[in-house]
Amino acid sequence: MAIVKLKKITFCGMLPDKRQILEQVQAFGGLHLIPLTDPPDQEFGVPKNTEGVLEALKYLNACGNKRHQIRDSTRFDLEKVTEEVLAIKSKVREYTDTYDTLLKRIEEVEPWGDFHLPATEHLAGHRLWFYIVPKRMMKKLEGCDWIWQTVYQNNLYCYVVVVAESEPPESSMPVARTHTGSVPLSTLKSQLSQVELTLEDLQAERESLTRWITLMTVHFSEALDLADLTKAQTITHDEAGVFALQGWLPEAQVDKFRRFADNQGLALLVEDPSPEDNPPTLLDNPRQLAGGEDIVNFYQTPNYYGWDPSVVVFFSFSVFFAMILSDAGYAAVFGFILLFKWRRLGQSLKGRRLRVLAANTVVISLVWGVISGGYFGYSPPEERLVSALKIIDINDFDGMMRLSIAVGVGHIALANAIRAYRRYPSLTALASGGWLLAVVGGFCFWLSEAIDSVLLRQMGIILPSVGGVLLLLFSSERGLKRWNDLLWRLLDGSKSLIGITQLFGDVLSYMRLFALGLASASLALTFNQLAMQVYHALPGPGLLFSILILIVGHVLNLMLCLMSGLVHGLRLNFIEFYNWSVSDEGYPFKAFSKKGVR
Known about the structure:
Layout: E1 2-3, E2 6-14, H1 18-28, E3 32-34, H2 50-61, H3 78-109, E4 127-134, E5 147-153, E6 157-164, H4 185-209, H5 213-234, E7 237-239, E8 242-250, H6 254-264, E9 267-271, E10 283-284, H7 291-299, H8 310-325, H9 328-345, H10 349-372, H11 397-423, H12 429-451, H13 454-474, H14 483-496, H15 500-509, H16 511-537, H17 541-581
Helix pairs in contact: 1-5, 2-3, 2-5, 3-4, 7-8, 8-10, 8-16, 8-17, 9-10, 11-12, 11-15, 11-16, 11-17, 12-13, 13-14, 16-17
């Protein structure tokens, strides 16, 4: 876990060579440009419909059957192809809605048969009103004054037609009226068939346009590259026939750009970041742990002068998700889903990072589920081998509460330990050490009340006391130049002690791990018991109903666990952990480089 060290480099060259130099710098990549002048407030050659091009590419790439790719761009027009693709997408959406509407109308009209409604004058001003009445409610029509007739019936319903000048009041009929419409069933089916043919033709057109995917990608990427190049030309400093280009560069690439400057006859200045500089943040983690970078950057990019929490978040998120899930069966389901998506996730760099993070989460969840003895809410009998692996009882409220608090104490203690290390050799590092002692000592004192330990009670008194002294003396960054500076430092220290309430609240936040894990296990057990009760209460059909209850119940519980694990697993890292370890926010490193297809 590291933030890449950067160097500030400055090129100086002749103004006529500026575009050529920038093109080569863009081809090299790896340089984050620093504006030396304010760029004009305008777009620089970016395609007019950038979002449309991206939408069209996404739509074509989602097509199952793709045509052979055309490489000759002689007849290619990016804007025209984009318009055609988006028009087809819009028509497909429109005809799909029509298809669904017709399908619903046919389903409603089909029981009545294929008929044409007679004109009103043929019925002496009367009309036909249609009702689908459950058989058990047909008795309500026996004393009805309306003229009605059952035209069709099945095991459950009677299809009743009422002849009247106006619609009968709802109170006089057992059910609400069915809207059959005036279009005959045969016409609806004919319209449905025509819509199906149109959708097939549109799909064929979509497949035909997939032959342009490569050229669309290349031309779009070239347009974006040109826009970046044009913008880069506006942020250099030009004076007296000379231009200056400045940017941030990873330390490992300095030699490559130094050779480039020598070959091009450019003056080059390489500097370390000064305290006044605010360099961008470039994270560099092992490939197996890089998924933590995506989680960290999703919330807040750490400051260049700070530290990279990616690895800590990578593992702590997996642990928190596992504790919230608390079921080996559910973890296995997520594992099978991950295996099914594994190859597809491997098609992009971000996808490969995500699948490693997901695999780590699944493995930890499986282990936690086994040691907590949960398998779709079912606990195996003690004589089974898997029961010997059960170490934790999720229904032990006191034990799980202590474990959740211990996890929170460890997480926040780690945050303060890291902050103390980052502050060293400043004396304020001792203040972070004071918070560490306070949170550990407070936990020891609380735990001593539960297990009646004299040693823990003593630690629970000594550690917070020492921590309080450290906070009182070393929380301030004021220098000691005069005698009253000591009083101001003590006042700053006293103000910092107010944070004890926040520390207490942050530790208690980790109890959500226990609460959500218990809720997940309780829901799974409830669905199992409900299915068993239905199975015994209804011999025969009870088996089908119990299976449906199990499937629907556990799928619902899985979705709730997934949302809870994601939301609260991230929240405990981004709110509680970041509060004690990551302070300043940075901005991401963006390399000036070519995009898309090489």
